[in-house]
Amino acid sequence: MVKQQRNLLWLGLVALLGGGMIGAYVFATPTEQVIKINSKKFVFIPNQITLKKGTPVILQFTSEDVMMGFYVPELGLRTDVIPGQVRELRVVPEKIGNFAFVCDVFCGSGHEDMNGMLSVVE
Ligand SMILES: [Cu+2]
Question: Cα(79) to centroid of ligand 1, in Å?
Fold first, then answer.
């Protein structure tokens, strides 16, 4: 009987500790900023994105008309951007600088000029 009570006590303690740790984890995880980038022939809106070094963000892409591709060659970031879908890229910028991005899926007559700049600042 005594042994059972002790076991129960331990179980309670473990549950309490576990719950506390989960709580601490939830509170310690900041919600990541979502940056929405819409695309349509032949622009990304916005086409100027500024991120903070070391701060994770989620880039969220949509297209109003045709399929596009978002590509930042210097950072190795890329996703298809498909009408009717939401595509996300999670980014933790580590390199400071200005990085050009382009549309890398041929989308029509203005495709070659469809670009923008992603800046990473301190
Ligand atoms: Cu294009």
Answer: 12
Domain 33-121 sits in CATH 1.10.760.10: no
Distance 45 CA to ligand 1 centre (A): 14
Write down the pLDDT at residue 31.
Answer: 85
DSSP string, the chain: -HHHHHHHHHHHHHHHHHHHHHHHHHHHSPPPEEEEEEEETTEEESSEEEEETT--EEEEEEESSS-EEEEEGGGTEEEEE-TT--EEEEE---S-EEEEEEE-S--STTGGG-EEEEEEE-
- What are the structural domain ranges in the chain? 1-30, 33-121
pTM, two decimal places: 0.76
- Which segments of the chain have a pLDDT < 50? 13
**Alpha carbon of 108 to ligand 1 centroid (Å):** 7
Determine the distance separating the centroid of ligand 1 and the alpha carbon of 96, expressed in angstroms: 26
